[in-house]
């Protein structure tokens, strides 16, 4: 595994899979690639992730993340965590189990359609499984006895969420249990909230660019509801999307269907020449203002002694949905094409042939790549070349390196990038220096 990867406390696991420091041998990997797509999965992301051994479906809308899938999820989390920390976000973890009383205070116990509600067998208390955490984070912060000098600040978590979807579908894009990053910011002035909101907007843009979907992900204006004139979504254009957005060719922004129904024009430039496209929502940001702080009577005295309502913003990214979106937009007829930033391994090393010198050369290269800090999946299985090439395309590591009797005679190892058809022979000793 990675030498230094921040632990995702939201995953309920206590022991990582046993692997080499920077690599994994496929003979030690308990999962197997599948030749056929699962019959009950129409979505490309679910079909490919299950076939390649990244996830396993337990039931509709609920998936287990296997070693390869967990590596991708951790890389996505690391990418997001870096941006949240740069925003001054302080990472916490809040309970998924939430009391009914808090939801009654905000008025959402009966109105939140996707809320999982249940009654305890003991004491008959009612609880919810958290689809979001406003009902938890506000009293949590309120209990810290803060003064105006402590503002502004922000807290975030990466945690499993639960939503009782009427129809779980589209693989990881619409699940009943999913991993999400939610950031909550706290302010005493609207100007401060507005400034922080803009910083988060920029951070989200960087996240999606680094995740390999920046070219087709658009800042999308959405209804602000009771909070403000607009909230914002980040929508990735793809035919697999369930949402409809309208792109402005002048501003490179979009508006969602709700906005267009109200006024069919771009909110930035006023253009009415909007193009309708399907898209997947990969992130959203809201100015909550005092909506939830007032429900808990959360106020703070300013420097003059006057009580001020605490203002809030909330900012979400679904990690598992982002993972599914990457697969939907970065796959071909052969499999997944991971960007380097979130790929489970940067290099997929294939060994072809059983000659002792070939095995020795491949084993030595595997060790050298790890020593050089390269993350490598080593296909040391006794399988045919056809099977190994097909599995490598399916798994989708950015760089495929093949050591075979033929390549060694030609002067090294065959190198091929996943997003290219070109192949070349590179001296074995030079591969560890490749980017």
> What characterizes the major β-sheet?
6 strands, mixed
Low-confidence runs of at least 5 consecutive residues: 1-20
Beta-strand residue percentage? 25-35%
- Structural class category: alpha+beta
Element layout with pairings:
Blueprint: E1 23-25, H1 44-51, E2 55-59, E3 62-65, H2 67-86, E4 89-91, E5 97-99, H3 100-106, E6 116-119, E7 126-129, H4 134-142, E8 153-162, E9 177-187, H5 190-210, E10 217-223, E11 230-237, E12 243-247, E13 254-256, H6 257-262, E14 275-289, E15 299-301, E16 307-309, E17 311-318, H7 319-329, E18 347-352, H8 356-371, E19 376-379, H9 385-395, E20 399-404, H10 405-409, E21 413-417, E22 423-426
Parallel strand pairs: 1-19, 4-8, 10-13, 18-19, 18-20
Antiparallel strand pairs: 2-3, 5-7, 6-7, 8-9, 9-17, 10-11, 11-14, 12-13, 12-14, 14-17, 15-16, 20-21, 21-22
Describe the structure.
By secondary structure, this protein is of the alpha+beta class. The chain has two domains: 31-329, BirA Bifunctional Protein, domain 2 (2-Layer Sandwich), CATH 3.30.930; 347-433, 3-Layer(aba) Sandwich (Rossmann fold). The protein contains ten helices and 22 strands. Helix 8 links the parallel strand 18 and strand 19. Helix 2 packs antiparallel against helix 5 (190-210) and helix 2 (67-86) crosses helix 7. It starts with 22 loop residues before the first strand and ends in a 9-residue tail after the last strand.
């Amino acid at each position: 595994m990675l030498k230094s990867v921040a632990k995702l406390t939201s995953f309920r696991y206590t022991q990582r899979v046993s692997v080499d420091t920077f690599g994994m041998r496929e003979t030690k990997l308990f999962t197997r690639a599948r030749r056929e797509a699962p019959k009950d999965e129409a979505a490309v992301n679910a079909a490919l992730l299950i076939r390649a051994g990244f996830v396993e479906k337990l039931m509709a809308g609920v998936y287990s993340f296997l070693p390869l899938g967990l590596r991708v999820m951790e890389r996505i989390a690391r990418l997001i965590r870096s941006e949240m920390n740069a925003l001054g976000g302080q990472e916490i973890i809040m309970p998924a189990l939430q009391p009914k009383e808090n939801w009654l205070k905000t008025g959402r116990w009966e109105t939140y359609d996707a809320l999982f509600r249940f009654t305890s067998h003991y004491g008959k208390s009612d609880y919810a499984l958290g689809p979001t955490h406003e009902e938890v984070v506000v009293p949590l912060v309120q209990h810290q006895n803060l003064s105006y000098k402590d503002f502004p600040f922000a807290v975030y978590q990466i945690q499993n969420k639960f939503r009782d979807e009427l129809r779980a579908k589209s693989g990881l894009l619409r699940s009943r249990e999913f991993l999400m990053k939610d950031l909550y910011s706290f302010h005493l002035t609207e100007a401060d909230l507005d400034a922080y909101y803009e910083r988060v907007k920029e951070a989200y843009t960087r996240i999606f660019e680094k995740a390999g979907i920046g070219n087709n992900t658009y800042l999308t204006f959405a209804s602000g509801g009771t909070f403000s004139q607009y909230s914002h979504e980040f929508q990735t254009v793809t035919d697999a999307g369930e949402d409809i957005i309208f792109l402005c060719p002048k501003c490179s922004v979009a508006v969602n269907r709700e906005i267009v129904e109200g006024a069919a024009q771009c909110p930035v430039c006023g253009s009415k020449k909007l193009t309708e496209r399907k898209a997947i929502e990969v992130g959203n940001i809201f100015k909550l203002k005092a909506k939830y702080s007032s429900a808990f009577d959360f106020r703070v005295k300013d420097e003059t002694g006057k009580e001020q309502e605490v203002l809030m913003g909330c900012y979400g990214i679904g990690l598992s949905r982002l993972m599914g979106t990457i697969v939907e937009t970065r796959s071909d007829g052969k499999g997944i094409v991971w960007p380097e930033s979130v790929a489970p391994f940067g290099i997929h090393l294939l060994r072809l042939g059983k000659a002792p010198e070939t095995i020795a050369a491949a084993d030595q290269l595997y060790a050298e790549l790890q020593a050089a800090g390269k993350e490598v999946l080593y296909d040391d299985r006794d399988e045919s070349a056809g099977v190994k090439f097909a599995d490598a395309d399916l798994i989708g590591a950015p760089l495929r390196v093949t050591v075979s009797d033929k390549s060694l005679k030609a002067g090294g190892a065959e190198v091929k990038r996943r997003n290219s058809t070109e192949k070349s022979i590179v001296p074995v000793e030079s591969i560890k220096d490749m980017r």
